[in-house]
Design a protein that fits this description.
Elements (H helix, E strand, L loop, with lengths): L1 H25 L2 E3 H8 L3 H9 L6 E3 L3 E5 H9 L6 H18 L1
Antiparallel strand pairs: 1-3, 2-3
Length: 102
């Protein structure tokens, strides 16, 4: 009996998370809590990024913080590291261009 209740509680929690992520995927403007979930960081880290002016945000009524999902995606994509194949391709192209000059 206890095992069934535990399983039921786990299923309910899982359904809540699925609903939360589904709603999050449909939104374009996110709250601080939703943005932290979207980025996979703590809310305190977002506050830190905002205070350092490293992350674009909106302040409704001078208090509540909101974030545009496209800004968050752009923030995540900064500092891209190229793959070895991309680096090798760029190096080969550079060598070919410089051979023509000689």
């Amino acid at each position: 009996m206890i095992e069934l209740e535990v399983a039921k509680n786990e299923n309910e929690e899982l359904l809540k998370k699925i609903l939360e992520y589904s709603l999050l995927a449909a939104k374009t403007t996110l709250t601080l809590k939703e943005s932290a979930l979207f980025l996979g960081v703590r809310a305190s880290h977002l506050y830190n990024l905002v205070s350092q002016q490293k992350l674009p945000h909106y302040k409704a009524n001078g208090k509540l913080l909101y974030f545009d999902k496209t800004d968050l995606e752009a923030f995540m994509r900064r500092g891209r590291v190229e793959s070895k194949d991309e680096i090798d391709g760029a190096a080969a192209l550079h060598v070919l261009k410089n051979k023509r000059r000689m």
